[in-house]
What we know:
78 residues, mainly alpha, 4 helices
Amino acid sequence: MQRVRIGITGLAVVFLVVLLAAAVVGFRGKKQDGSEGGTTATANASDAPPADPLAELGVAPGGTAGDSVATQSNSSQR
């Protein structure tokens, strides 16, 4: 019974140490991100990759109906 109690206490201590470390690292990350004024989130939103890049290139089926009609009309004019 003594070994079980020591084992459970050890696991609890390790859990608390990991929890404390995660809280410290998380707090530092939020503090650094907040000092930039939040421009990182808006910059990443504008640099987001397209939803279906293969469909935009015309390699795979997809896209909207308006895109395919515009592409067909451009092809027939050439």
